[in-house]
Amino acid sequence: MAKIIYTHTDEAPLLATYSFLPIVQAYAAKAGVEVETRDISLAGRILATFPENLTEAQRIGDALAELGELAKTPEANIIKLPNISASVPQLEGAIAELQAQGFDVPDYDASPEVTARYDKIKGSAVNPVLREGNSDRRAPSAVKNYARKHPHSMGAWSADSKTTVATMSDNDFRHNEQSVVLPADDSLTIQLVTENGTTALKEGLKVLEGEVVDSTVMRVAELDKFLAEQIARAKDECVLFSTHLKATMMKVSDPILFGHVVRAFFPALFEQYGEVLAAAGLSPNNGLAGIINGVQDLPERDGILAAIEQGYADGPRLAMVNSDKGITNLHVPSDVIVDASMPAMIRIGGKMWGPQGEESDTIAVLPDSSYAGIYQVVIDDCKANGAYDPTTMGSVPNVGLMAQKAEEYGSHDKTFQIAEAGRVEVVNAAGEVLMSHDVAAGDIWRACQTKDAPIRDWVKLAVTRARASNTPAVFWLDETRAHDRNLIAKVNEYLNDHDTEGLDIRILSPEDATQLSVDRIRRGEDTISVTGNVLRDYLTDLFPILEVGTSAKMLSVVPLMNGGGLFETGAGGSAPKHVQQLVEENHLRWDSLGEFLALAESFRHEAERGAPSAAVLADALDKATEKLLDEDLSPSRRVGEIDNRGSHLAIARFWAEELAAQTEDAALAEAFKPVAEAFAESGDAIAAELIELQGSPVELGGYYRPDADKASAVMRPSAAFNEILAKLA
Ligand SMILES: NC(=O)C1=CN([C@@H]2O[C@H](COP(=O)(O)OP(=O)(O)OC[C@H]3O[C@@H](n4cnc5c(N)ncnc54)[C@H](OP(=O)(O)O)[C@@H]3O)[C@@H](O)[C@H]2O)C=CC1
Ligand SMILES: O=C(O)CCC(=O)C(=O)O
Ligand SMILES: [Mg+2]
Question: Which chemical reaction does it catalyze (predicted)?
Answer without folding.
Answer: D-threo-isocitrate + NADP(+) = 2-oxoglutarate + CO2 + NADPH
